[in-house]
Amino acid sequence: MTKDLLLESAQKLQQVEEQYLKEYAEKRENLVSLMNQKMQSRADIKELVGEDNIELMKDNHANHARFLESLFCEYSADVFTETVLWVFKSYSSRGFSSLYWSAQLNTWVELYKEELTKECFAAIYPYYNWMIVNIPSFKRYAVEELDSTKSEH
User: Fold this and answer.
1) Could you tell me the pTM of the whole model?
2) CA 104 from chain center: how many Å?
3) Of 55, 75, 124, 127, which has the highest C-beta tally within 10 A?
4) How confident is the model at residue 57 (pLDDT cuts 50, 70, 90)?
């Protein structure tokens, strides 16, 4: 998938209604805490994030939740696409495994099903589905950009 097609598909996402943004915002800190607990309890966590990257992973989860809340408040397909691409590149360069992304995003979805109302989950799930479905493209762009950076040196 080209970057233009990624952006085009992101433009089809709908703005989250105010009531669901409010619910997400009220539960965000608890969701991050639960997310960190679930991810840290995984037997393969060091393989996913690297030997000394647990605190970086926690920062990523907090930043992820704040970023998504800001998108739910004022959606921009361009900001969403560019930020996800940047995150994949940035964390890959810091030793995060490519498998981390599916583990992380699927865990968020699992948590949201448990912690959010059915209506709120339905409102935000398309954003996660878009990220999950496009993981292969994000990985490819991250690798290409990292390789191009290496060839410049």
Assistant:
1) 0.92
2) 7
3) 124
4) very high
